[in-house]
Amino acid sequence: MRIIIYTKDNCVQCGATKSAMDKQGIAYQLINLDRDPTELETLKALGYRQVPVVMAEGEHWSGFRPDKIAALGRAVAQG
C-alpha cells in the first residue's frame, strides 16, 4: 500500500502524524511542500488548506487523525 504524507517544516501536526505512523510500523513517503511547492496546487484542488495531508489507497485526510492512522495500521497489518 502506497502512503504519502504531505508536510511542511515546523508543523506540529505533521510531526505527530509521522510519529504515530512510525509507532505502528507504517511505511510512508514524505513530500515536503516547503521544498516541493508544485504539489501544493494538487492539494488545493482537492480542497485542502492545511497539512499534513495523508493519502492512502484512494482515501485522504488532513490534520492529525489518530483514528484514521489506527485504521490504516490495521489495514497494513492485514496485508
Strand content: 15-25%
* Residue windows where pLDDT falls under 50 for at least 5 positions: none
The largest sheet, given as strand count, sense and whether it forms a barrel, is: 4 strands, mixed
Strand order within the widest beta sheet? 2-1-3-4
Mean pLDDT: 93
Structural class, judged by helices and strands?
A: alpha+beta
Strand elements, count: 4
Q: What does the radius of gyration come to?
A: 12 Å
- Number of helical elements: 3
Name the helix and strand elements from N-terminus to C-terminus, one letter apiece. EHEHEEH
The end-to-end distance, rounded to whole angstroms, is: 8 Å
Proportion in helices: 40-55%
Globally, the shape reads: globular
Protein name: Glutaredoxin-like protein NrdH
Family: Belongs to the glutaredoxin family.
Keywords: Disulfide bond, Electron transport, Redox-active center, Transport
Pfam family, one: Glutaredoxin
